[in-house]
Write a structure and sequence with these properties.
The protein is mostly helical. The protein has eight helices and seven strands, in the order βααββααββααββαα. It has helices at 12-33, 41-68, 82-105, 110-133, 145-168, 171-195, 212-235, 240-256, and strands at 4-5, 72-73, 79-80, 135-136, 140-143, 197-200, 210-211.
Amino acid sequence: MLDVHHFTYGAVTPLISYAAAVSGSACGLSAVSRSRVDAPWHVRSAWLWLGAAAIGGTGIWVMHFVAMLGFTVTGMPIHYDVPLTIVSALVAVVVVSVGLHLVMMFGYRPLLLVVGGSVAGLGVAGMHYMGMAAMRMHGTVHYSAVSVVLAVLIAVAAATAALWLCVHARGGLSMTVSALVMGVAVAGMHYTGMWGVSVTGQPGAPDGGVPMLDLLGALLLGGGGSVVLLVFVVVGSRTESERQRHEAFRDRMARETVPVRR
């Protein structure tokens, strides 16, 4: 069995990956909050898709691959299958979107929360192991059944909690605390799954795939660019409380301008 290192660069990769999880969660919560308006279905759905892109794409998928920069095996370079890596990103976004639509579009109900959390959680866990399956190395990767089960349970619990926070989080402070909690949950799921990973085989270079460093530029550009774009979109739109104040002001002005009959 070869030596496996989860923190090759010390605390650097865990901290950066946690920052990605928190920033993606914060942008996602802000986008989802914009869907709580009296608007056409497609408008609300668009906000939920933006939220899913932030949470699933940046908060989960980017977090996973940044954390994987710290995963190395002695004498065995790790490459990644690009198509499977891209598919794992799409899976993360779609499953989060399904969960968000279930709890935000059909009225808050505990059953829908459980179903949405289960779908999103199982999908996120699937994304994690799909990302692991995208690794190309000379050896064979083994997983501890205990760590797999725990990672799946944490993913489902984290997804359910995240959906609950999407429904109930109000205001800047509440959303900030929620994003910090979601970041801990996502990182906890990832490192719980990685805790049970072992590798056997002879040292050597893989036959296919591309090195992680070759993916890093596209990863940071895609993840960072998405966050910046989402921030501009979210900041440029009214919050839920701002819409309520605007509508109240408009109604008050309409009442005051009604001519008085004598």
